[in-house]
Amino acid sequence: MRFTVAQLLELLAPGMTNQEILADYPYLEEADIQASLLYAAHIANAQTIIALALAS
């Protein structure tokens, strides 16, 4: 079974409920949805530092 965080977010974004997702994808569990949301939150909150090249 492979179900990506992106696939799950694409279901949640337009308003699909957890219960609807679990009914349509019985191999998923509530904990999978919560873990995906937590992962997405961490990714969205990431800070990236980009080094600037200094002219010599």
Automatic annotation (TrEMBL):
Taxonomy, superkingdom: Bacteria
InterPro entries: DUF433, Homeodomain-like_sf, WH-like_DNA-bd_sf
Protein name as catalogued: DUF433 domain-containing protein
